[in-house]
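HUMAN: I'm a chemist; might I ask for a sequence paired with its structure tokens?

ASSISTANT:
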Amino acid sequence: MLSPRLHNLLDQGHAPYTTLNHPRTITAHDTASIAHIEPVHFAKTVMIKADGRLAMVVMPSTYRADLYRLGLALGGAMVELAEETEFRGAFPDCEPGAMPPFGHLYGMPVYVDSRLAHQDEIAFNAGNHTEVVRMPYKEFERLAAPELLWLAHMM
């Protein structure tokens, strides 16, 4: 079942979307594979701390966050990966590691790798490890209002 916050956002925003149920997966790569989604279209959410504050970084599942580049893009901020213990409580309606890429629902900024903006569609975890949301990228951008940056590189 979709995270309640995500469900409300999508429905109140009148956003077109579909959901796909799949067997339980943990990694973005496995989720994309089992859901038959091109890995470049499946967005993974990586939690970071920028100058000590939690933020979401959203990128294609085949990419890895470039913390140095991200720090430069954020005006020289000290950027590091957040530990699960540091962000678990920030997503009370989600399973750990399956948070959807809508930072404003949880009081934090969201930074999206610009490569996703060139896709027609985006897919992402729905707040759990057994369901994926697919929607037009432009609708995601309209609802999430992310900051677009070049912040990742191929794994």
